[in-house]
Structure formats: C-alpha cells, structure tokens
Amino acid sequence: MHDIDTFLEQAAELLGPRGFTRDAQLLEPWLTDWRGRFTGKALGLASPATTQEVSQIVRLCGEHGVPIVPQGGNSGMSGGATPDASGEAVLLSLRRMDTIRALDAEAGQVTCEAGVILQNLHEAAEEHRLRFPLTLGGKGSATIGGLVSTNAGGTQVLRHGTMRAQVLGLEAVMADGSILDTLTPLKKDNRGFDLKQLLIGSEGTLGIVTAATLRLLPEIGARRVVWAGVPSLQHARQLLLHCERQAGEALEGFEVIPAHSLAAVLDHLPDARAPLSGDHAWHALVELVAEPEDADRIGEIAESMLAEALELDLLSDAVIAANEGQADAFWLLRDSIAPAERAIGPAMQHDISVPVARMADFVEAASPKVEERFPGTSAVAFGHLGDGNVHFHVLAPPGATRGEWERSDGKAISAFVHDLVTQWGGSISAEHGIGQIKRDELARLGDPTALTVMRAVKDALDPRGILNPGKLVPLAKTVPKP
What we know:
The protein has 482 residues and is of the alpha+beta class. The protein is built from 17 helices and 18 strands. A hairpin with a 4-residue loop joins β8 and β9.
C-alpha cells in the first residue's frame, strides 16, 4: 500500500465531506452484518453519488492498493458486505445512488441506480400500474445493487425466477475504474460473453454494480392467498403439484411452514393469530394472482383448487384470506420466522437447495440424522418448496450461549448439513450467496474445475485483488514443494 495519508487526503478531496468520512460513529452501524456474525473495521466510508465518482474512487483505491468492500442495504445473510478486522479496506456504500433514471411503462422496463431500495421500486412501479416481480422480507432495506450482486431470490421465484431473470441490462465499475455499460436492453445480442450475467451473483468480487435495467410486469388485478394445514411435507409436495396443475401460471408462490415455526412466530408477534384452528404438522402458504382481465376468475380457481385438494386428502384444513389485510397478515407470519427464531436462541441457518422433486425426502431424511448426531438440537425447515429451496435451521439445545455455541458445535453442525446436501446433489447456497460465511465450505465441497474457473475469472478481472477480498471466491490451496 502506498502512503495511506496521501490516499485519505485524495479520497476526501475527491468525494467531499458527504462522500467520504472516517467518523467512527457514522461508520459503526455498517461494520457488522445483519445477522451479527461478523464485525470488521474500515479505513473510511466512501459514499459516491454518481457512477463517475464510483469510477474515480475505485481507480484511486487501485493506485494505492486499498481494498474495497461494496455495500448496499447491509441486509445480506452471508457476511458478504462486511470488511475484515484489519481496518485496511474502504467501505464503499452505494446508498446515495438512489435515483430511478427512467421508467418506460409501455416497454415494461425501469433503469435504476444501485442504491434504490426495493420497496421504493415497488411503489414507483405501482404508480404506473406495473410491478417488479421480486420481493422478500427485507424489502424495506435491501437495495437493487445488493439484490443483483447476490442474485437474490425471495418468495416469487417459483413463477418469475431469481434476480438474474429480472435483469435486462447492467452498469458496473470494474476493478481498474473503467465503466461497463450494458444498460440498453436488447432482445438479441450475440457479441460474445453475456458480461452482465457474469457480474450478477458475483457479490462485488468482479465489479461494482452501479445501475440496472429491470423488467416490469402488469399490475396484479386480483390475488387469493391461501393458508392450508397439511399432515406432512410429503402432502405439501403433492399439494404443490396439484396447485401447479389446477392454477397454472396463476400460481405465484408456495411456501411451507412447520408447526414449530408458526408457534415461534405467534409467541414473537403479540397481535398475531393462527390462521387455522386445530393442530397441523405443516402449513402451506399459497398465493394465486391474476392480471386485470382475468381478475373475475381467480376466486373460482382458488375455490375449485382447494375443494379438489380436500377430496384428494392433500390437506386437512384451509382458509382463503377474506381481504388484503388478512392476506398481508398471512405473509407476515411467514416473513417473521427468522426474527422469531432468533428470539428463541442460537441457531445455525442453512440456505440450501436440492432437486425440487427430492426436497420433501431430503428434509425427512436429514432432520433426524442431524438431531441424532447432535443431541438436544432441533432441525427446522421452512421456505420455498416449489423452488427446491428451504431454509434448514438447526436450533441449539436449551441453555446454549449465543456466539459461543455457533463457534463450537455450530460449525460442526453446518459441515454435517452441507455434507448431506452435497450427497443429495444440492447446493449449500440457494439464494443468500457465499460471502465469507460459506467461502471455506465452498472450497471444501465445490467442484474443483468450477473453483479453478472462478479463480481464473477473478484473477483476470481483478488482478490486484482489491474488490471485496475474502468473499465468495475461495483461495487456491497451496501445495507444499517436494
């Protein structure tokens, strides 16, 4: 690293007092990840307001060998936006870049900067009777740049795909400060590699996303949200297949919640109520939607679908939300599982996927194996059954000390779960990314050829290794010389 004082002076001059600070109080909230697993230090907080300023600060960091940790809403689940403890990196926040540059309602496209908050994008689309087909629990803080960089999923992937499927064009600053501009959406473009797809999901290790052109869909004319009680996860799987056959493209989401998770949420939310009476081992949250021209049919589709499911013994009981308020209340129960579990005590959270058809079998096989191997723990799975992606959490035994348990037994538990997932042909990261929390596990379990290609791409695009070092891309194993 060159003279650090010179770098700090030049960074402050380049970005001004709003754009660069070393104030400890201003830095502090952004140095710990959302889950509280990682806390680091930073040389300073850079908050550029334009793509040109991002380019200039990246070029300056490159000249002085200063590492850069890009950050959006700091709502990631894998520690991918948290600096390490060395204090040598600059935290680069994209939050000031929050402009929606253009919205073409006729084309169904919007171009927005990386710092635009997901909920604000939803509201902007709604003003034009459109919608952006990706949502998640953290929509009030998650930013577009972060969603692109982690290839975020959410609760609508079943019908619309991950963030990768929503991106039509991209703007990014590369490691040398050059600006890659592929914002113009082309239906057909055969000029070599699709570079935007390379950057999507790269977690800021190959380039810094500054803007994106995204697809928009027509507004929802009507929706029906169903809460169903089912005897087992296998029944939930069969119910999913039934819903796909009966509802077709109207099926927007299908989530599964075990009885344990619902009970935790009801304890956590003082005003929450169970949607159904009686006890049910599992619950399914199903959403059907229709465009305005088909709005009159959606109620009939939902009622017919449920009536046939009852006749087939696929569910024990079900209720259709009577209004939008109740529909939102059903989704709040689902979205509150993670904070409700966190209130109970320590847990190891695993964001895993296996082939869709095998997910129910996997959960039924893996849960008892984990609980037998680690006495006192409880394995809980919930989430996006239709995507083959569940959040497989292992709750600590009563009395476990938060922090200490995760660092000891927790690591062994995660390794065991990841081994099981790999044996079933699955992925140790379905939608939350690798970050730093799973980097070593990716090195241990990843396909060697795939890892070699990833490292080669990283070395080619970021030869000095200044972009989000220590995240996503595992270091090559050193072989002792003979």
